[in-house]
Specification:
The complex is a heterotrimer of chains A (254), B (352) and C (293). Chain A is built from 10 helices and 10 strands. With 254 residues, chain A is an alpha/beta fold. In chain A, the strands form 2 sheets. A 6-stranded mixed sheet of chain A has the order 6-7-8-3-9-10, with helices on both faces. In chain A, α3 crosses α5, α3 packs parallel to α6 and α5 packs across α6. The radius of gyration of chain A is 19 Å and the shape is globular. Chain B is mainly alpha-helical and 352 residues long. Chain B has one domain. Helix content of chain B is 70%, strand content 5%. Chain B is built from 14 helices and 3 strands. By secondary structure, chain C is mainly α. Chain C has a two-stranded antiparallel ribbon. In chain C, β2 and β3 form a beta hairpin. The longest helix of chain C has 30 residues. The chains are: A alpha/beta (254), B mainly alpha (352), C mainly alpha (293).
Chain lengths: 254, 352, 293
Amino acid sequence: MSNPVLEVKNLGIDFGGLTAVNNLNLEVNEHEIVGLIGPNGAGKTTVFNMLTKVYNPSRGVIYLDGNDIAKMNTVEVNKAGVARTFQNIRLFGNLSVIDNVKTGMNNLYEYSILDMILHTSKRKKNEQLIEEKAEELLKIFNLYDSKDIPASSLPYGAQRRLEIARALATNPKVLLLDEPAAGMNPQETEELMKTIRFVRDKFGICILLIEHDMSLVMNICERIYVLNYGTLLAKGSPDEIKKDEKVIKAYLGD
Amino acid sequence: MKNIFNNLFSKKNRSRTISFLMVIVAYILIEVIMNTVGMSRLFKSLLVPVCCYIILGLSLNLVVGISGELSLGHAGFMAIGAFTAVCVSGFCAQSIPNDILRLALSVLCGSIVSGIFGFIISVPVLKLSGDYLAIVTLAFGQIIKSLINNVYLGFDSRGMQFSFVTNELKLEGGKMLLSGPMGATDTAKISNFTSGFVLILFTLYVIYSLINSKYGRAIMAARDNRIAAESIGVDISKTKTLAFVISSVLAGMAGALYALNYSTLQPAKFDFNTSILILVYVVFGGLGNINGTIIATTVLYILPELLRSLQDYRMLMYAIVLIVVMQITNSATLKQTLEKTTKRFFKKGEAQ
Amino acid sequence: MTFLTYLISGLALGSVYAIIALGYTMVYGIAKMLNFAHGDIIMAGGYVAFYAFSRFGLPGGLCIILSILFSTILGVVIERLAYKPLRQASSLSVLITAIGVSYFLENAAQLMFGSDTKIFPTILTDGSLKLFDGQLTISYLTIITIVTCIVIMAGLTSFINKTKIGKAMRACAEDKGAAQLMGININTTISITFAIGSGLAAIAAILLCSTYPSLSPTLGSMPGIKAFTAAVFGGIGSIPGALLGGLLLGIIENLTKAYISTQLSDAIVFTVLIVVLLIKPTGLLGKKENVKV
């Protein structure tokens, strides 16, 4: 088997005296969709925050394609190839839908400040490319028709989709989705699952996602990690997880 | 032809087109009136300052509206531009007799020096946020004013002469450029309305170039959601520095234009109240709203002059206008009716 | 000895700044707004005391009480009329309104009292205390100023921590929504905060005008800016921070005036402020706010 794209070893973080996450080992392989589940407060989002360096892990290493990214800051981590969405949606509310996606491509199409002021052909060419790519992404996420309205006036489900489109615009190797289906109705969730699979195939990326909607998780994830009280409770295929007694106990109580 | 028209008024470009049209039409109108009907001396004297304050408003809007950081020291950059320009212009009075050339050089120098200071002050800007950032800009404005208040600069046959805090210059002939709290005296008035107009166009060009580019998007993204912006690779400090430096360059430019419109100019002019005045224009026009800034600046700058007949009551009226407009624009019921009517209006417009 | 003299007068100036800064910081902590008109309430308090004493010949104590009463009412009225309708508005709209109120007060004062400078009478005392065989002279006014500041600080701290209203104020500062759900009347609490802040401004006015006895409509603006700076210096929203910031600012200002340069004192004071904020980005005693992701 090939090397994992994202590999986490011994990851942990303390807030004051409280250990929120401890001793986490996790990997995501090429082309894989992996789920990270667990009861509320298990530390799932904290894991995402450590992976993207919003929080500094107290212990452990994070490898992306074999390179250590644990010392990088949030911006560098993204440039290295990790993009994410947020549990509580964080869009650029006053920017138009398409500008949200365009901002994601800032580091992919370079032109200098001088090019910007002088409107050189380099600026025109790159802005053109950004525009085309952004429109393409919006079409995938069914947002093209509302591309010029402010992102904050999109309906909730569409906002979640836009966040994914924006993250994809940075051309990541790994995409971290934090509850992508939260607040969606079953039909929208169904639609979202298709899109996630489509995106994985089209862009050849791997995906790690946090989700409470078990039908979604069991449906599209190839492997699942279960987190409880900040430590790994179980890992395995959806079928294995469904049968795992520790997992059932953690979710349902004794 | 129709294509060009559609492009100019497309959703993306509408604001830009309106800005340029508005400024150009206003310029032509004023020029025509001046050359036919004539204009009162009072109004003529307001033209250059209005241009300066429009540029200042636009540049401050870049920081407060577009970049989302409150700045209370914009007059500081204005002062740097102003006194740099006065010195350059005074120093080159003999060597460059052409007024336009000298004005251009002075304005250029004023902008550059102000830009350098903008870069320096952006260091604390990057470390702080919110009100702490605002207080640093306030402090910066006070420091600049207080420093210029103590600079004595002149030149004579022996070259440039400089002293600080107390005036120890003994010039042999020559010319005093800055004399402490007295500031600049005997400046040649080489600014004019046309140069103000050209500089407004230049400012609009720079601002629209910025906000429609990847740099502008990054600045606005950092304003709307810092953490999300970082998560998609936007370097917050770089983008904020860029906004701050461009803003200070433009403010320096406006200051230079302003200074060269008066024969005397004291550092005390560039105090906290002037910074606040510019901020009022920006907030009145709507944060991030470029056309709003232009209109609000023009109206609010001229308003106290129009109220001159009320004499002592004019600033009182001005204060009441400020308060009342803020109450009205923030009243929820009023906002709703306003939105409804504008929507109806636009729908009608599109149907025709 | 001269150093001690400058230090003590700096302490007195700092005490005045601290009293004004308390008003800024309390209002900021609870209403999350910069009350730019605060400096002009000082001015109003000064004029009331001046007219009560010089024109109507009322006794000093009564003048002080009248001045405090007037400023308190003025502060509450301003809050009710101008700021209360803007509770949901953006902070910049509130800031502009406050600037409007400030212009209004300054110009109204100019119309009513004229723009000429008036000499503030000796309401408090003009004697002084001589120590070390007359080597060290401290005016009673300086002592009164410093003592007043200490008393106010102690009183305010116990008020905030011990009384029911004080608790309500702290709850509002923490989370208005939750405070409201607990049955705290937000509007009353904010009004009380403005009342206290404005009352303190009047006390500051009398101390300030007694030390620098000239009265003009723009009297409050510079001490206002300095006190606001002091509040941020100490960490805005923090009451001990306002005291510390005020005292330090006053001492630094006085010592630079004495030993470095009078003209450059402002530049130096504000440079120190920037340096402190670079080292401690939320002021000396300010709290760092964490954003939940």
